């Protein structure tokens, strides 16, 4: 008997809440009074037979991050990184040039003479002028620019 009384009182409370929602919308100031004419308190929640939706996070956030200050300057760190990159590329090029190359057609072994690769441009001397072939400038041997 007690269960039925509690159930009836809860049902009455639920129905009275839906009526209150509809009454709340009636008093709103609007330009067109028919805007809320299609609202029905019974059609608010019809999906009670479905499984409730569960939030699944798509991103894992890392735990606490510790901020550490570097003792070296940012510019120095950058320059050291660039220097290390250039040194590793240079060592790889030297290592490749020192390997023996084998021609598959004639089976002739060609060995590198041990010359290292240089990034400097060769210059040619012509009657007191120094000419750099990769650029358009001609420099006098005394160091002044000549056009």
TrEMBL record:
GO terms for biological process: positive regulation of proteasomal ubiquitin-dependent protein catabolic process. It comes from the Eukaryota. InterPro entries: DDA1-like (IPR033575), DDA1_dom (IPR018276). Transmembrane segments: none annotated. GO terms for cellular component: Cul4-RING E3 ubiquitin ligase complex. Residues 23-85 form the DET1- and DDB1-associated protein domain. Belongs to the DDA1 family. Functions as a component of numerous distinct DCX (DDB1-CUL4-X-box) E3 ubiquitin-protein ligase complexes which mediate the ubiquitination and subsequent proteasomal degradation of target proteins. In the DCX complexes, acts as a scaffolding subunit required to stabilize the complex. PANTHER family: DET1- AND DDB1-ASSOCIATED PROTEIN 1. This is DET1- and DDB1-associated protein 1. It comes from Cyprinus carpio (Common carp). The lineage of its organism: Eukaryota, Metazoa, Chordata, Craniata, Vertebrata. The gene is LOC109106224.
């Amino acid at each position: 008997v007690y269960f039925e009384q509690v159930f009836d009182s809860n049902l009455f409370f639920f129905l009275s809440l839906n009526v209150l929602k509809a009454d709340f919308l009636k008093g709103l100031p609007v330009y067109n009074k028919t805007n809320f004419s299609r609202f029905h308190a019974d059609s608010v929640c019809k999906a009670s037979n479905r499984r409730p939706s569960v939030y699944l996070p798509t991103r894992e956030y890392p735990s606490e991050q510790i901020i550490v200050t570097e003792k070296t300057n940012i510019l120095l760190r950058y320059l050291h990184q660039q220097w290390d990159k250039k040194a590793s590329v240079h060592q790889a090029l030297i290592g490749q040039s020192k390997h023996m190359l084998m021609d598959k057609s004639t089976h002739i072994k060609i060995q590198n003479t041990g010359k290292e690769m240089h990034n400097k441009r060769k210059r040619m001397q012509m009657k007191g002028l120094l000419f750099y072939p990769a650029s358009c400038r001609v420099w006098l041997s005394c160091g002044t620019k000549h056009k």
